[in-house]
Amino acid sequence: MDSQDRVNLKMGAKRQVLDHYKFYVLLSILWLALWWIGDTMYTRDVNLIARINEASSNWSFNSLFSFAGLFFIVASMMHMGTQLTMIDLDRATADMDNPIQRSFALFDKGQYFLGWLFICILVGIFTFLWSLLLFFPGIIKAYAYSQSFYIYRDAYDRGENITALEAITRSREMMNGYKSFLFIMDLSFILWFILGGITFGLAFLFVMPYYDLARAKFYNQLVWRQTENQSHVMDDADNRDYAGSDDSDSTL
User: Fold this and answer.
1) Do 189 and 208 meet the contact criterion of CB atoms below 8 Å apart?
2) Rounded to 10 degrees, what is the CA torsion of 147, 152, 155, 158?
3) Burial 53-92 (b: 16+ CB within 10 A, else e)
4) Which of 134, 155, 183, 233 would staple 160 via disulfide (CB 3.0–4.6 Å)?
5) How many CA atoms lie within 13 A of 132 on its CB side?
6) 8 A C-beta contact, residue 152 and residue 122
C-alpha cells in the first residue's frame, strides 16, 4: 500500500459516512456516550481526591474501583461491536438496519466475547512488556497486534479452531510491512481529533465513525491482499507441478 491507497481508504470512508450519516451516528452513539460518561466521572473523581489529600490512603482504592472504569470497559465492548459491523458493511455482508442493535455485535456469539477478552489481556501484557524496553517498541508492537481480534472473528466464522495467541501471531505476520502505513493514517486524523476536543466531543459523532470505517477498510484490504498472495503462490505451485509432470511424460 502507498499514500494513494491511504487517500482512497479515507475518501471512501468519509463518503460512506456522509451518505449514511444517521445510521453511523446511531451505530456509534452508545459507546461514545458511555466513554464520555466514564471520562466525566474519572475527571470528577480525580479532582475530588486531589482536593481531599494527595497522600490519602484511599486514593488507589477509589481510583481502581471507580465506576468510571466500568463505563470505559463497557464502552470498549460496544466500540468493538461497531467496528465489527463496519467491517461487515464494507464487505457487503451486512445491511444498514438496526444500528443500535448492531453495536452489540460483540455479543452475537459467546466465543466472540471470550476471544476479545483473552486477546485484550494478552495484547495488554505483551505491549506493556515491550514498552519496558523503550516507549517506541511498545507502539510498534501495538500496531503489529492491532488486527488480532478481527482475524480471530473471521477464523471462528470459518469454523477454524483458533486461540487468542494464534490470532495475535497472525496479526503480527499480516502487519509486516503495513505498520507504518496504518501509523501514518492514524496521524492524519490528529486534526480531526483536536476538532472533537474543542467542540466538547460533538464532532466525534462524525470523526469516530469516519476513523473506524477507514480502519475497517484497511483491514479488509489486508485480508484481500493476503488472499491474493496466497492464490498466486498456489497457482505458481500448480504450474510447477504441471511443468514437472510434462517433463516426466516427455522422458517416458
Assistant:
1) no
2) -120
3) eeeeeebeeeeeebebeebbebbbbbbbbbbbbbbbbbee
4) 155
5) 5
6) no
Give residue 57's pLDDT: 47
Task: Considering only the C-alpha atoms of the chain, give the largest distance between any 2 of them, rounded to a whole number of Å.
Answer: 93
pLDDT, average across residues 48-56 = 53
Grid coordinates given for 175: 502487519
Indicate if the pLDDT at residue 67 is higher than 90. Answer: no
Q: Which helix (H) or strand (E) holds 100?
A: helix 99-102
Classify the C-alpha dihedral 28-188-73-127 as positive or negative.
positive
For 111, other C-beta atoms within 10 Å of its C-beta total 13
Q: Is the pLDDT reported for residue 242 higher than 70? A: no
**CA 121, 127, 129, 131 torsion-angle sign:** negative
Contacts of 231 (CB under 8 A, 6+ apart): none
Share of the chain above pLDDT 70, in %: 83
pLDDT tens-digit readout, 87-132: 999 999 999 999 999 999 999 999 999 999 999 999 999 999 999 9
Rounded Cα distance, 51 and 32, in Å: 29
What is the per-residue pLDDT for 140? 95
Return d(Cα 151, Cα 157) in angstroms, integer.
Answer: 10
